[in-house]
Amino acid sequence: MNVSQTMETEEDLLTSLQVKLYHPQQRARGMFSLLPLGSRHKQDADDPLRLGRDGLSCAFALADQKVSRKQLSLQAFRTPQSQGMFFSIQNLSKKGRLFVNGSGLGYLERLDLPDKALVRFGEYEMLIVRESGEAKGSFEVELDVLEVSPFTDTCACVPVRSPVMDTGSGFTDVLKSPEPLESDETLPYHT
Question: How much is the pTM?
């Protein structure tokens, strides 16, 4: 087999991550302007794929000052029981939580991703879908923008936020905020 045939075969068999992004103000603001939307990006499997505001330390940068310099990381891994490539997600933000299929992750906490995952940080929502391949040294990522929230488009079985009982005490409006509360924030108390 010559070199070009070998490369074609490996490229055809790359594991693929399809990352679809959504933000409620994406039409008014250019937060996705730095991303290579609609094209495939090849990534070495031993390098973590970072998403954040800092274009120097992150493979994919968001043009939004509300996003952490390093927001999250996707890391490829393999297991002895399987031939496939899998991924874990890690929260790199010291200020905000990262939610994966309803489970919250604090700073430096990580979680193995299922084949389809709904991810949320701040007002950003992502649908990440893994398609299996056989290549061991690299994978590909394809980024796209969704017109509607993946949380409302896919199913209602993944909670966006925990339900809160209205006790009439006057501070429930703070709890209903679409933004996750920062770890250093406190709830106001009204008497």
Answer: 0.72
